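Quiz preparation item.
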């Protein structure tokens, strides 16, 4: 689907194509994410969401197309694009033997942050995320939600302009989820943009002001949440857009 260029899009994707062997994961995918938005990326299993996110952060090398992050081409100005981006992947990629404090500071080092700035911000993030009491224990002993919070702290430390979150609230308790939402609001009020991929339609509907629906490696619908919903539930819009029908489960009568 052709997407008109936006004047100030912190994320601009054009004609992104990716094959894994004979499986096409992305099929000329184009997308513009408006500045300051919370953009929900939704789509059925295997539709290409993770491949898109991984292409944006340089973990997947696309076969064609282009990605610009805050004006930096991911293919030719990888460092510039990386500096502007923070990411929480699913599954998470953490160093299990490090403590959260060591991990987040290591990420700060890799981002070229001054030690003092890095440790001051890390402490503030740990306090806000209610992780401070466990920040000196190895990550290998953390619960899933604690790992998510550690990954979020590492993603925010260098104050990126674009934050990519794959299933950010999965496994996170309601109190921490509320804190995370208020952190995202604060991040956006400072000019940051969030792209959030999730299967939880109620959450996307509540948090995101813009949505892109990916199906079979293409963006099949995009717009503001209100434009797409037009008074309906996002879940119903999603099912319509991807043309899903309920699977026949009658052959599973042995389950009953
Ligand atoms: N490393 C890989 N090797 C082979 N095929 C892959 C690889 N990564 C993704 N794919 C395939 O590419 C397609 C898109 O996968 P992707 O993980 O991007 O989907 P997704 O929308 O994130 O799915 P989900 O919602 O289930 O996480 C799928 O058919 C998947 O099997």
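Solution:
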């Amino acid at each position: 689907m052709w997407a008109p260029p936006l004047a100030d899009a912190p994320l601009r994707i054009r004609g992104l194509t990716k094959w894994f062997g004979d499986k096409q994961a992305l099929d000329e995918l184009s997308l513009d994410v408006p500045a300051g938005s919370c953009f929900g990326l939704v789509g059925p299993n295997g539709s290409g969401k993770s491949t898109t996110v991984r292409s944006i952060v340089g973990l997947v090398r696309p076969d064609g197309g282009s990605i610009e992050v805050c004006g930096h081409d991911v293919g030719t100005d990888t460092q510039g694009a990386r500096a502007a981006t923070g990411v929480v992947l699913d599954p998470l990629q953490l160093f299990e033997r490090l403590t959260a404090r060591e991990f987040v500071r290591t990420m700060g080092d890799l981002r070229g942050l001054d030690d003092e700035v890095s440790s001051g911000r890390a402490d503030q993030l740990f306090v806000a995320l209610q992780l401070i009491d466990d920040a000196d224990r190895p990550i290998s002993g953390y619960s899933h939600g604690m790992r998510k919070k550690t990954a979020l702290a590492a993603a925010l430390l260098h104050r990126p302009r674009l934050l990519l979150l794959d299933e950010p609230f999965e496994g996170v308790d309601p109190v921490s989820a509320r804190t995370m939402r208020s952190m995202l609001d604060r991040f956006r009020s400072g000019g940051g943009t969030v792209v959030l991929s999730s299967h939880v339609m109620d959450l996307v509907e509540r948090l995101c002001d813009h949505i892109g629906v990916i199906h079979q490696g293409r963006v099949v619908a995009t717009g503001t949440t209100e434009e797409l919903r037009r008074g309906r539930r996002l879940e119903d819009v999603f099912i319509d857009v991807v043309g899903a029908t309920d699977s026949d489960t009658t052959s599973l009568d042995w389950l009953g």
